[in-house]
Amino acid sequence: MKKIFIKKKIFFENRFPFNNINKSFFFIIDYKLNNFFNNVFLKFLEVNRKEFKVHILKKGENEKSLSTFKKILKDMLVNDIDRNSIIISIGGGVCGDISGFVSSVFLRGVELIHIPSTLLSQIDSSIGGKNGINYFSKNIIGTFYKPKFIYISLYFIKRLSSFVYLCGFSEIIKISIICNLKLFNYLNKKFYFIKKRKYNVLKYIVKKSIKLKLNIIKSDLKERIDKRIKLNFGHTFAHALERYFNYELSHGEAIWYGIIFTIYYSLYLKYTKFTKVYPVLDILYKYKCLNLKKISKIKFKKVRKYIFLDKKNINNKIKFVFFNKVGSVSVKKINYFNIKRIFFDFKKKMFII
Fold first, then answer.
1. Known Pfam families for this protein (predicted)?
2. Superfamily of 162-352 according to CATH
């Protein structure tokens, strides 16, 4: 990944940002951004006589599938996409994940550019080279593949619904919990300006979040040691919930619940104290993305199946990231009986955490 650009607008000085790239483009676009592409990008492509083809993704996480993957490959072959082409993804995490996977395996690799359109994809899923598709569970098939560059425009953030926007902060709060008390306190202190989507505040948060993530992954790109795995804080339970609800629960929303579950699990096993937990609970409720009734009736047997399909499962033991205090987490192995006991206790007490 050579460069990450963070800009307020879509274009550099009203010019198409890829003018100097003498290659054909294959766009993979979220369906919600089709009109945006036609109204904004299309004229620049035509004026600059760029060769391009477009594939539109349908709605939701279910698009991260083998069937969608095959449709995109067929579209690329029919349109004579070759190694001298560039794949450009314009969309959220789903779009970026499947575009990255396609780029990494088509002709053993073609260049990739990400233009992430959600806060969550800007600070998390587009950063770090992970990509993949779902098969029985979340991201079971995937590769590590670095994009040529990432173009982040805060233009998109202004157009997100309030719920989608605030759900994006689940990953930002997660990274602050893992390793940065200063960012955590900033997210608390600047909440009014965050709600108002003030540009300077958002730019600082996006840049800081990306920097923190890159610092973690630079020495553990492929998750061979326990450094990068800390980024999975809250994700074991979150991914299982997403699958349980057939991906009708967004990733950002699932992470909120995953953090709550992890906090409770850490308290239960005495890896932390309530005095350390309280600031996290306070900020989670401040961002108002939790609806505990939604997960109060889930069945352990089904959730357990998805939990143990986790990529971190080795010999029926999962590497689980526990909370110690803001700025510090630890990785421990857990088994089936640990998770079963804590799950039922969590369901009883989740409303009084």
1. DHQ_synthase (PF01761), DHQS_C (PF24621)
2. Dehydroquinate synthase-like - alpha domain (1.20.1090.10)
